[in-house]
Fold this protein.
Amino acid sequence: MYKTIFSHVGKYKKQALLAPLSIIGEVAMEVTIPTVMAFIIDNGVKKGDIGYVVKMGLLMMLMSVFSLAFGALAARFSAVAAMGFAKNLRSALFRKVQDFSFANVDKFSTASLTTRLTTDVTNIQNAFMMFIRSAFRSPIMLICATIMAVRANSKLSVVFLFPIPVLACAVFFIISKAHPRFEKMLRQYDDMNGKVQENLIGIRVVKAFAREDYEKKRFNENTDSVRLAQYMAEKLVVMNMPIMQLVMYATITAILWFGGHMAVEGSIATGELSSFIMYVGQILMSLMMLSMLFIMFVVSRASVQRIYEVLKEVPAISGSDDTSVKAEDGSVRFENVSFSYFDDMNKLALENISLDIRSGETIGIIGGTGSSKTSLVQLIPRLYDATEGNVIVGGKNVRDYSLESLRDSVAMVLQKNVLFSGTIRDNLRWGDENATDEEIIEACKSACAHDFIMGFPDGYDTDLGQGGVNVSGGQKQRICIARALLKKPKIIILDDSTSAVDTATDSSIRKAFREKLADTTTIIIAQRISSVKDADRIIVMDNGKITDIGTHEQLLETSEIYREVYDSQQKGADE
C-alpha cells in the first residue's frame, strides 16, 4: 500500500533526499554547540581567559549560523518535495477517476472522491513533509545527543533511560485507539461534503420552496457530527503533548537534582553539567518528535488507505487494446441481454432483451418511470456493461472496441444535461474540438439553438458560468443536442432530451434530424408520444422488458400500454 502511494513522489525524489541530508548538517551543528559551551564555561570563564571565551563564542555563533542555514534548506527541500508529491498524487487520483465507469463512481460516491482528492491528500502531504524531516532528524539527534551525554557523564546518563518505556507505552496506547476514530471522522467528512454538494446543486429548489432554515439545520447537524467525530479522534492525540512534556520536565528536574549534588561534591564540572542538561533536552525533544511522528502516521494512515482504495480500484469497464476496430455502420443488436446494477441476477433492471436496430433507423422508446429505458441505451456506448448476453454495435461486440473508438461512434444526450464553465463555443467543441464556425452554426441550427444564442450580446462567446447557470433548461438541452451532432456519430441517443422545450421546437428538431441525419441511427427516449410518433419503430418498455414493438399506428391497435399513454396525453391536449 505505502509503496503504491509513495511511488508518486516522482521527480521530487531529489528534494526528498536533499532534505534529510540537510538535516544531518543541522543536527551535527546542534549536538556540537553544547560541548563548545562547556569548554567556554570550564576553560574560559572559570580561568578568566577572555580571549578563549571570545574565540569559542565566535565559533559557537558560526555553528549556529550553519545550523540555521541547514535547517532552512531542509525546510525548503521538504516543502517542495511534499507539495510536489501531493500534486502528483492528486493527478494520479484524478486520472484514475477519469477511467472509472459509472459503476465505479457509484461505489465511492462523488462526495467521497472529492474528500479523497482534497482532505486525504492534504493529510498525506503534511505527514510526508514531517516524515522526511523528523524521521531523520529525531533518530539522528537522539543517537548523537545520547552518545555525547554518555561521554559527558555516564553515571548521570542512567536517569534519562526511565522515560523511554513511559513514552513508548503512551504512544502505543494512543496509536491503537486513534486509528479507527480517524477513519470514522473521514467518513463523516464524506457525508458532509455530499450534503454540501447536494445543496449547492439544488440551491434554486431550496429557495423556491423556502427551505433555507431546514437546510441550515441539516447542515448544522452534519457539521456537528464531523465536530464530534473529530473531537473523539483528536482528544486522544492531544494527550500526547502533555504526557511528553510531563516526562520531559520530570527528567530534567531529576537531572538537576542529582547533577546539582554531583556538582557540589565536585564529581562533575559546572560546564559539563550545563552541556549535559542541554543534551538531555535534545534527547527528550527527539523522543517527543518521534512520538508526534507516530501520531501523524496514525492520522495519515486512514487517508493512505482511502486513497489506496481508489488507486487499486479496477475500472469495471475496460476497452480492447485494438484501436483499429471501427463501427462499420450504425446498426445495434441486443442478444438476450440482461442487466443488473448490482451484478445480481435476482435484481435485474433489464431482463432477456433481444432487439435488432437497422443502421439509419429512427427508434422511439417509451415507457413509464422505472421501466429501464435509460438503462437499455446506456449499454450501447458501454457506460455500463450487460450482466448477461451481448450488445452488438456496427456488426461487432461492444467489448471488441476500444472505449474511445466505440464512444466516438455514439453520441448521447443524457437525461441530465451537463454544461461546463466556459463559453458556448467551448462547450460545443466537446463534440468536435476541430469544428469550424460554420459547422458549429449548422449544428446549432439543426438543434434550434442558433437563434437564442445569437440573442446573447456575445453570441457564441457568451460565458455560461459553472454548470450553464446563464441558460434555461430548454436552452441547455438544445446546446447539448448541438454538441452531440458535432460528433457526426453513427448512432445518436436522445434520452428525454427535449422534455424542456415546447412542442413546436421539438417538432423542428425532429424534422432537422430526419433531413440531415438520414444515415444516422437515432434512438429517442421520450415521455411525449408526439416526440416518437414519426419514428420508424417504437419500443414500449415496462419493468425492464420490451412489451411491444411497432409503428405508431400498429401500437395504437396492439399495445394496451401505448394506447393508454396516448389516450391520456391526447385527452390532456384536448382539455
